[in-house]
Structure formats: C-alpha cells, structure tokens
Amino acid sequence: MATVELKDVRKVYHGGVEAVKGVSIAIPDRALCVLVGPSGCGKSTLLRMIAGLESITTGSVAIDGAVVNTIGPAERDIAMVFQNYALYPHMNVYDNMAYGLRNRGTPRDEIDRRVRETAKTLELAHLLERRPRELSGGQRQRVAMGRAIVRNPKVYLFDEPLSNLDAKLRGQMRVEIRNLQRSLGVTSVYVTHDQLEAMTLADTLVVMNAGLVEQAGAPLDVYEKPASTFVASFIGAPPMNLLPLDRLEKANARQAAATIGFRPEDAEVDAASAGNGLALDATVEGIEPVGAESFLYCGTPGGRIVLRVPGRAAAQPGDRLHVSVDASKLHWFDEGGKRI
Ligand code: ADP
C-alpha cells in the first residue's frame, strides 16, 4: 500500500540545465502512472528523483505521505526495472532473484519461498537453474521483473523496460506487465517515449514536454481532448492533423482559434457535405496499406494531412478527394497551441 506524491519538483543539474521545471503529480495507491514524452523532456530525471538516485533541487517527493527527499534509495522501499536489465551473468535465475533479499539478510527459507512463488507467477519456475545467456530476451526481462517483485516493495519504478525487445514481444510483455501490476496491486511509475505503450498501460497518463507536464489524465480522455497541439501530435499514431486556420477558408471558426485539428480516423472521404464542419480538397500523395486499414497521405490547401480508412484504399496517388470532418470531431487551438 502506497501513494506517491510529487509537489512542485524541480531539478537543475550542475552546469545549469533545468531538466524538470516544477512538476506536481499525485499517484493513488495501486495505480500505474505512465510518464511519456519525447527524448530529453525530463522523464528519467523525474523517475530517478523518485528513486533517490538523483537529488531534488526544490519541491518534495512523498511516499505514503512521508517526504523522502533526504532518504537514500535503499530506504525508500522501492524497486526499479531498467531497460538494460543488468542481470548478473554468472548467476542463475534463482540467484539473480534472491540476490537483493540475501543482501538484506532475509532468512533462507523465506527467500526460497518468495523466489519460488514469484517464479511461478512469472512462469519462470522451470528456468531457475539457467544463466541469463541461456534465456530469451522476454525471459530475461521477466527475471528482471522477478527481482523487483520478490522484494515486495511499496512502489515499482519502470524505466523504458521494454525498449530492447522486438515489437511482438513488446506487445506481449506490455499485457503481462499490466496484468501483473493489477494483480499485485503495487503503485507504479513507468517511463516510456512510446505513446502506444503509454496509452495501453496507464491508469494515469502524464504527457511531459521540456521539463513540464503538458497534460495528465486517463489515457482516452487525453486522446479525445488533448490540452495542446503538442499533446495532439504526440498521442495517437498517425498523429492528429493540425492545420493553420489562416491558410483555410473557414467560416464558423472558433474565436481566437489559430489551428484546427482532426484525428486521421475522423475524416470522411467523398461524403455528401461537411455541414458545419470542415471541408477540404485533397490530393493523394501516398498510400500505406497496413492490412486492416490504410493510411492516405494527402496534400491540401492548409498543408499535409493523413487519413485512416478501413481495409484496402481504393485511391491512387494523384487522385483528388473531397474530405469532410464533422463539426463535433474538430479540435481548436489558440495562437499558443492551447486547446480552446
Ligand atoms: P528523458 O528521460 O525524457 O529523455 P532526461 O531526464 O534524461 O530526459 O533529460 C532531461 C534533460 O536533462 C536533458 O536536457 C538532458 O540532456 C539533461 N540531463 C540528463 N542527465 C543529466 C546530467 N547528469 N547532467 C546534466 N544534464 C543532464
């Protein structure tokens, strides 16, 4: 049982780089909070401050209501899973998992019970005698998680744990981590730059940009109501289409709006009329069939857009299309990129 609360946390590195510029996040007990954002936005720094591996310049980190700013990493009762799982190559799976407990002087039979129980949960029971080099990537990742789980900590911290795995395995492990985190009910903070991983894992999604939180909320709320053009273009693949209004002849534009946006799946091709919505003449420039759907890359007077259509696209490069978007599917942003 644990909550994690960050209050106005800042980090200025030696040399003056302000990596985190004042972040406040409250993570409820048992929740999985995902920090997502482009490289360099400060997410690893934030995670390392929660872990105690990096000092906090100002602000506070509290675990279970107690401020831990000056408490060392070993005393914070957290466990971390990294991308390079850093297993001990000369130790077998059992010893890799038992290592942390032995270091803490946990009694032998208690260690044995916990390691075997965890190995069962992670389907590693038949691999306990193997060395890391005798395991697949996914199995190694599971051992790394096992090492965190046996310690039975208050909080798990994950730093891009899946980025060394291939796409298929990443998908499988994503589901495993999600199920495991739910069933163990341990409060977790998970860092990734992968928006799909973030969307599918998070209870709370925190989108970061340049050391600040751009938006925090339930993943689908963030997808449906992005707070800024930054979030709109970061969450969703392909990203939201964003067009500057001064290049469109658009009546009924929202007051103070500078940019109009719509998701690739929200446009209709060659529909009768857009009504109060947006109508665009588009020229097909490229087509990407990905199986169940196709992406159409098009040029319009307002700029390039991408459309998402089911199945095989009937269009060819050079075709001219009439694209319309219902008014209810439009997103409006002001000069500064903030949602209106
Ligand atoms: P992310 O995890 O989102 O990629 P980081 O937290 O690693 O971002 O980095 C945020 C910013 O802080 C970057 O500008 C990075 O160059 C800088 N930074 C990270 N670590 C250090 C360090 N030890 N010393 C100085 N600057 C750092």
In short:
With 340 residues, the chain is α+β, with helices and mostly antiparallel strands. It contains 8 helices and 18 strands. Strand 15 (293-300) and strand 16 (303-310) form a beta hairpin.
Write the layout of secondary structure elements.
Layout: E1 4-12, E2 18-27, E3 32-36, H1 43-51, E4 58-63, E5 66-67, E6 78-81, H2 93-103, H3 108-121, H4 137-150, E7 155-159, H5 167-184, E8 187-192, H6 195-201, E9 204-209, E10 212-217, H7 219-224, H8 229-234, E11 241-244, E12 257-262, E13 267-269, E14 278-289, E15 293-300, E16 303-310, E17 320-325, E18 331-334
Parallel strand pairs: 3-8, 3-9, 6-7, 7-8
Antiparallel strand pairs: 1-2, 1-4, 4-5, 9-10, 11-12, 12-18, 13-17, 14-15, 14-17, 15-16
Adenosine-5'-diphosphate binds at residues 13, 15, 17, 19, 37, 39-45.
Tell me which CATH architecture of the largest domain applies here: 3-Layer(aba) Sandwich
- β-strand percent reads 25-35%
User: What is the end-to-end distance?
Assistant: 39 Å
CATH topology of the largest domain: Rossmann fold
Radius of gyration: 24 Å
User: Which ligands does the model contain, each kind named once?
Assistant: adenosine-5'-diphosphate
User: Are there runs of 5+ residues with pLDDT below 50, and where?
Assistant: none
**Spatial strand order of the main sheet:** 6-7-8-3-9-10
Tally of domains: 2
CATH homologous superfamily title of the largest domain = P-loop containing nucleotide triphosphate hydrolases
Count of helices?
8
In CATH, what is the class of the largest domain? Answer: Alpha Beta
How would you sum up the global shape?
Answer: globular
